[in-house]
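F.,

This is the one I mentioned.
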């Protein structure tokens, strides 16, 4: 299916394709692409091509690009902007190419528009705006700011502080976030454990994969003591509860000292996040958005909540040096600011080891 957002003056540009196998859904008028991406695009999930007459879009260039990026996250669709008769077409072309949109119609004559549309709809698409592979590789080089830095150890004034981590959707990264938080705390000198308080049974799989042997009531996995129930046989600085997906806050989440809510905040999934926030009203919650592309972060915050924290992606349970900008403000009040700089081993490299007793 082909979806076409068009102004009145350009609604006939696709008429030459009528009668072909491709179904054309044409919407004529003036549109806010941000609102369309947030509310209506899910109705066109089967769309293969998205044609947009830029002259019918309310947003200016920056917001237009952000809205397109949001659509790229939601749909596997070829985006074809039509810039015909636009005086600032060159500015649009540069920004579009930067986000990987290279099927762009710029011709002014009807014959030229038809030829360019045909090329954009061809199997290989329009070629003249495609960038060399070498240029793309330069764009994705790891910035120096993201290179892991040395880890600082602290002295912790905390005993059995309860941290509840919950998600707004299934597979929203709750378990990885909970383990990462435990590993992050342990790497900085804290004594922390993980408790599974949901029915997903992820911990059973993790324990089997790592061949963890029971030690008292805990199963040490990497550097993290893991519990299947809330029956702990020792004290910790921090107890991290994996609440899984929630619709209403369970008792453990309500009674926790620190609450962390994580999930997708992209436009097509933000409704789930808002529903859980509503159910948790009047609670002090650290709101976390997972894996949000940088160009979409401001848009998602404006649409949902300005105080949402954006987390870097992690697929390693024992990643101990990521998202400190989120974790440190949560637990900073429990530090005694006795810092010892050290290059610590990765959490997973010291599997099964026991850690020091609690700081008195």
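My design for it:
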């Amino acid at each position: 299916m082909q979806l076409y957002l068009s102004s009145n003056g350009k609604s006939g540009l696709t008429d030459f394709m009528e009668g072909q196998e491709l179904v054309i859904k044409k919407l004529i008028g003036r549109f806010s692409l941000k609102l369309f991406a947030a509310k209506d695009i899910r109705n066109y999930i089967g769309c293969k091509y998205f044609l947009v007459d830029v002259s019918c879009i309310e947003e200016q260039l920056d917001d237009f690009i952000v809205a397109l990026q949001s659509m790229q996250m939601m749909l596997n669709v070829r985006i074809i902007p039509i810039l015909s008769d636009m005086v600032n077409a060159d500015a649009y072309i540069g920004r579009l190419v930067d986000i990987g949109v290279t099927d762009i119609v710029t011709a002014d004559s009807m014959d030229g528009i038809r030829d360019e549309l045909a090329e954009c709809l061809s199997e290989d698409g329009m070629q003249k705006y495609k960038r060399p592979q070498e240029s793309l590789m330069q764009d994705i080089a790891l910035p120096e700011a993201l290179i892991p830095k040395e880890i600082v150890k602290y002295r912790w004034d905390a005993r059995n502080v309860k941290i509840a981590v919950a998600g707004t959707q299934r597979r929203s990264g709750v378990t990885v976030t909970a383990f990462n938080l435990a590993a992050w705390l342990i790497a900085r000198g804290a004594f922390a454990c993980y408790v599974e308080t949901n029915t997903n049974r992820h911990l059973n799989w993790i324990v089997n994969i790592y061949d963890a042997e029971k030690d008292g009531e805990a199963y040490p996995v990497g550097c993290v003591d893991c519990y299947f129930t809330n029956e702990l046989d020792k004290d910790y600085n921090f107890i991290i509860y994996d609440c899984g997906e929630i619709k209403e806050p369970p008792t453990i989440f309500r009674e926790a000292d620190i609450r962390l809510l994580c999930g997708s905040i992209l436009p097509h999934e933000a409704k789930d996040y808002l529903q859980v926030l509503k159910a948790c009203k009047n609670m002090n919650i650290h709101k976390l958005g997972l894996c949000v592309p940088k160009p979409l972060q401001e848009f998602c915050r404006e649409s949902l909540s300005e105080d949402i924290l954006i987390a870097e992606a992690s697929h390693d349970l024992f990643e101990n040096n990521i998202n400190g900008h989120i974790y440190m403000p949560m637990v900073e009040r429990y530090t005694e600011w006795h810092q010892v700089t050290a290059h610590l081993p990765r959490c997973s490299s010291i599997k099964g080891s026991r850690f020091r007793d609690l700081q008195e």
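Residues 61 and 324 are 34 Å apart (CA to CA).

Talk soon.
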